[in-house]
Write a structure and sequence with these properties.
four-stranded antiparallel β-sheet
Length: about 190
């Protein structure tokens, strides 16, 4: 399993880095920041726990046992739905995911929102621009995430298949010591 995750991380990093080759960076492991990115000294687990609009995501990460990976040295990019995005999904679904029977589905859903490597706002925007519209990156669930232009008057970044279930990056992203957290206005469905 660790070998598969490392292979996915290496492949997705190569794909995204090739799309970002025109971006000027001194250290490829450091995410490019935009003016809207907030920087924190702590790890992603601390950052998620400290953000008011991510309390549901923090609770679900803890229920799934995935909060521990956010405190490690490995770099990740989290695309986390805001509290209002989870509220729109319905309380019954959230309670079912927190149950012991729903835990496998919860883990799969959350891993769908995690990508290996640290990708800042500017990294994503540059990759989308260089690929002329969309970029596909691997997630930790063994699938792919499709990011493109849209939302916010066409100037924002969307994540999804382009249908009604497409989420948009909303609010400021947060760079922690081991990755980047992007806040979404919706939940990413499995994309394959």
């Amino acid at each position: 399993m660790k070998t598969r995750i490392a292979a996915i991380a290496a492949i997705s990093s190569l794909v995204l880095l090739s799309a970002c080759q025109q971006a000027e960076k001194t250290d490829a492991s450091e995410p490019q920041e935009s003016a809207a990115m907030t920087v924190t000294d702590g790890h992603m687990g601390q950052a998620v726990g400290n953000l008011d609009n991510l309390s549901t995501a923090a609770s679900l990460l803890a229920s799934a046992g995935l909060d521990d990976i956010l405190e490690g040295e490995a770099a990740y990019t989290l695309f986390l739905p805001s509290d209002s995005a989870f509220e729109a999904a319905g309380i019954e679904q959230m309670e079912a995911l927190k149950s012991e029977e729903g835990r496998p589905e919860l883990i799969a859903m959350l891993r769908n929102h995690i990508a290996p490597g640290a990708l800042g706002d500017a990294d994503i925007a540059t990759a989308i621009e260089n690929s002329e519209g969309t970029v596909t990156i691997a997630n930790m669930n063994g699938g792919n995430l499709i990011l493109g232009k849209g939302g916010k008057g066409g100037k924002g970044i969307t994540i999804g298949s382009g249908g009604d279930d497409t989420a948009s990056l909303s609010g400021n992203s947060v760079r922690a010591s081991n990755g980047v957290i992007h806040i979404l206005d919706g939940i990413i469905p499995p994309l394959g």
